[in-house]
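Sorry to interrupt, but I need a hand with the structure work. Could you write out one complete protein record for me, on any chain you like? Could you add the entry underneath, on a fresh line?
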Amino acid sequence: MTFCLTSTWRRVVAGGAALLWLGAPASAQLQQVAEDAIDSVFLVGVAFEDGSFEEVGTAWTIAPNKLATNAHVAEALIDYKGETGRIVARRGLLDRNEVVIGDALIHPAYNAWNSRLQRMLVGSIAQLKNFNVIGVADVAILDVVAGDAGQPLRCANVSDPGDEPKLGDDIMYLGYPMENLSGFATLHAVVGNVTAKTDYFFMRTEWPKAHLIHFSGPTTGGASGSPVLDARGHVIGLLSAGEHLLINQGEARVSFGFTYAQRVDLALELLDGSYIERQAQRNREWTTRAYDLFIKPDQIIDGNIELHAEANNLPVSSIEMVTQRQDTLTQQEDERRVRVVLEPGYRYGFLAVAHDGTDIDSTVALSDDSVLGSDFAMDQFPVVWVDPRAERTEAFFNIRAAQSLLGPTPVAVRIVRYDASLASATPGPEGQDQFWSETLTTDFGGEQRHTWTFQLDPGQSYTFSATSNEQLDIDLKLTQNGAEIDSDVLLDWFPVVTASGVSGEVTLELIMPAATAAGAIVNLEASSSGAGSGMSDPPGFDDAWRTFWEATWNADQDGEHSVTWTIDSLADLRYKITADSVDGLDIDMRAIAADGAVLSEDVLLDSFPIVEFDGNGQTITIELIFPATTTAGTAVEIVGSEADK
């Protein structure tokens, strides 16, 4: 796994700087380089009024009253500062001679290109799960508003052939690695060798376009932003990421010794203002590069059509073309409209793909602007399928960008259709039947974990999956009594875990990253197959009832609030949902139909509400209501069961 190296946040009580050497033996040249640079390298973090200090990363003096660091460090500093903190730089954790930081300038390519690369790598039908994205233009400049920032370090000149690092060259980074290290954050000199020079697509290229420097040397959280220096004392890059092995079920990581640095001129151009013109040229080059290297838009469209055909038990040949065209978005406010006449009896598919990974959204609407379907997911390939109409209808396929454009953005557009009578829905993955689904909407931002428990039958095989609507890198783990059964911690937004031959209670854990925002949506599903009866029935239930869902929900906030789940009900089944407050709180529950009608509710003064209702072939919402006396962490056990009518 590849990680940006901002530390796991440790708040400690603050109270100067030593130099420790790691890695290979240092040459006399590098030793002198380190001694000359030591006073210009800082630990950056957030100081609070109570005297505590939030360590974040490393920064160094690039110009008078200017520090350079990583964009992801600058973002973390801003996030942690809040209303009461001060962003400061120190020469050691206990140093009282603080350098106070004001504004931060983050390279514009950081957000523009990282989101696009993430979508093109793991958000397409290609599903390149094993490819980890290294931050693009992960650099920022911090303004010093008070304190002595020391002498600026000398930076390499990309246009000078003598400043190009050669493969195998001795280099060194100076920084404050701190994650999982003992004692206080200390300035370390870590020696390594240049191992590769590539572009952000990991392709070898000439030095002026090789913005990613690969080198050897151990690293860990906190070293982000460290200056990487050559034997002449020139800064050639800023350390930004490293390869790590996850241990202890992902709670800790061990460095492989392969590390990445952003070339230093990306930070220098922020100082002189040339980044706007330079990045405009790179945008054109990188867009062409991405189109040449990654899966083509027509292939993505073909893949989405194949997935739909498979899900509806259709031969792909039965899906016919209605129209195909290329459009271009020239500014974010643009909207492209494609007119189509919907013939009765046909299901229509509306598909589009942005060539450069731009997040685009789409709606299908009638002439009176009533919407038949939409796709606002954070991806570059919106897909809308519209159910058959009873009569001939005019509709419009509307496409627009959901983020700022890099320039003129080509968009591939295709509209298809098939006779709706040919479709028949199939079971879950590989012949499995879905027994549980849930839509989780986060109540708060930041790194978090959610768990559910299930009773498994050893005669069944199970598949649990999750999908992040925001395309966050989410993970799933399936454990039993603390032992891992399966996990999916790849860098993707659609993890899947499986179990077979397992008996008894298991825990499904969803792990969401620090980048999670309140309101983020994750869709979860579980399917089973085999000779057994599916989920085991809980004690005390009548034999006629079959358990299809068990979960433990921990309240995410204090006070009165509610959470909801959805159930895709079948018309020939009756459903019973029970909840039990572990802390004995008076909780209530409702079952709500798709039209908002309440099918069943239990608002009695008790801690164990029950709702029971007939299935109607529609999606039913289950609402669990917590009282004003709720405290965050309060646990509620939920069981869903079904029976034949």
User: Anything to note?
Assistant: The first strand starts at residue 2 and ends at 4. Helices lie at 28-37, 71-81, 108-122, 265-272, 275-293, 297-311.
